[in-house]
Design goal:
Layout lengths: L9 H9 L6 H13 L11 H11 L3 H7 L4 H7 L9 E5 L14 E5 L8 E4 L7 H14 L18 E4 L2 H5 L5 E7 L2 E9 L8 E5 L26 H12 L5 E8 L2 E8 L13 H7 L10
Antiparallel strand pairs: 1-4, 2-3, 2-4, 5-6, 5-8, 6-7, 8-9
Length: 302
Amino acid sequence: MNYKSIVKSRKLRIKILRLFNFVPDKLMVKIQYRLSTGKKLNLKKPRRFTEKIQWYKLYYRDNLIKICSDKYSVRTYVESKGLSDILVPLYGVFNNVDEINFNNLPESFVIKSSLGGGNSQVLVIENKNNNDSNKLRETISAWKMKRKYKSVSREWGYESDNPKIIIEENLITKHKKPLIDYKLFCFNGTFKYMYVISERNQKDGPYLDIYDPDFKKINASRPDIMNSNKILNKPINYALMVEIANKLSKDFPHVRVDLYNFDGNIYFGELTFYNGSGYKPYIPSEFDFKVKNFFNLPKKVL
């Protein structure tokens, strides 16, 4: 049973889950895993990639994950790898909404919470003159309030008392092309497979296709996102994208490196350690077993 099919509102699901903040992390991830996948979670001998992500949440709490889960502090990490040129230009970083002067911003920009996940807490502003600044402030203020709570999926890396508000360049406006996400799944510094997410603006939501390191489409999908049924073109500078992903992932047992590519202009998106909170199954399920072989669990860090 997928509880999302019963409680369709994401906001309502989060409110319900927050009522169970008192439940210990280990028990909570077992409950959520069962509700999301219909399967019993095995933490002693994880047999699936999605199970290993639960173990990763609970037992690998290296502080570098917390630094790199934050969309602002991760920029320093990217710079330390000699990759400052792939960072999206910033218009400002703010501790609270009262610090933002919308009059000083360009016509188009993107506002993010430094700890937003799953495309939540992101506002893409195409033309600020078409938006009510007071309503924008209300929305952003609500993001800050949410950080008073424990992560509903028990994603330790996202738990912080001091998230930032980031305002950065709108790449779609700059390049006048649709945004395509390249999400490279890496293990100990080696890229193994990729999500390519395209056509985000279509009515029924984006497409998700899975590709191998040779950019050959894999016969696997996720039940919650449609496959495009197309063979997409390999991006320009693809080899450089792989090189960047391997460099950024070298310090971690597992991380997903998110990049954008506009005609060879490569930009950093984020580092994600718990893809889909580890609650997103694959079709066929054999792919979940296959991917877990890439993920060698480290020693516990608590």
